[in-house]
Amino acid sequence: MDYLKIFSPATVANVSCGFDSLGFAVDAVGDEMTFTKTAEKGVKITNITGADLTYNVDENAASAVVKKILKEAHANFGIELTIHKGFSPGSGLGSSAASAAGAAFGVNQFLEKKYTALELTKFAMFGEEVACGSAIADNVAAAIFGGFVLVRSYNPLEIIKLPVPSALRVVAIHPQIEVKTKDAREVLPKEIALKDAVTQWANVGGLISGLYTDNYDLISNSLVDIIVEPYRKKLIPFFDAVKTSAINAGALGAGISGSGPTIFALCKGDEIAENVHQAIEESYKNTGIHFEMFISKVNSEGMKIIK
Ligand code: HSE
User: Fold this and answer.
1) Ligand 1 neighbours (beta carbon < 6 A)
2) Domains by residue range for the chain, with CATH
3) Per-residue pLDDT reduced to its tens digit, 48-60
4) Range name among 83-87, 132-136, 241-245 with the lowest pLDDT average
5) Whose alpha carbon is nearest atom 4 of ligand 1?
6) From CA 31, how far away is CA 213, in angstroms rounded?
7) 158 φ, ψ to 5°?
């Protein structure tokens, strides 16, 4: 094989209560990446479209991951990469994660799938560190494994793939402002009250139980974040208005996607998702802030090979 084209999905990390430990992949939005095998060793980015990203192979999340894997695998070939960003960096939809995870997945196809999904997640976490200074796993694991994932442990890394109830839909609004993950992490408290921790971990348990049992009421009751959202929502104009309109229109819950500014709502079924889309659009259209929206299924297969 000398050439490969893949789709690497956008992802929603945290999913309200699961800061740094829960995430899911999105079906409708993602990046396309191509990989061409070269006789010359090393990695080169030949084209980037859809976003203004660095071609420096040590600073770009995708090429940094390819370089690391080729080196660790003692590969006797190189890779030329192209990246087409299907969504913006700084959106809260796991842009650097899509690049890093796509890179790990893609190069592994040229290595006879030498590495497991867990090992690929570790490589992709290196890309996250290159892009935003923290080796966070929730976005990259969701992109690689697909569906909902739980990062059960960081050390050693343990990822649990969770079931996806079939009627689950996500509606998202991306206000066209940039929130840097680094800044969104700096506003968080270093310590939290025990009673808040109890509420939060009970909600994580409830959400996971709801996913396993197709219990949409339980999913709805558990989509609550009392620890991170109160701090981060201040970085997102009209967050409360969007959340209220989504819930009034029938969403199971709504929250900040990753570190924002995208706001996601989970819904049961296509009809409610359409209503929620319309309600959120209404709530934002007179704010003076440009925005993009989408409705999607949860992507349960993760990466896709296009050709
Ligand atoms: N879990 C991370 C955060 C996702 O919320 O900071 C962003 O990469």
Assistant:
1) 13-14, 20, 136, 138-139, 181, 184-185, 258-259
2) 3-162 (3.30.230.10), 168-297 (3.30.70.890)
3) 999 999 999 999 9
4) 132-136
5) 258
6) 32
7) -135, 125
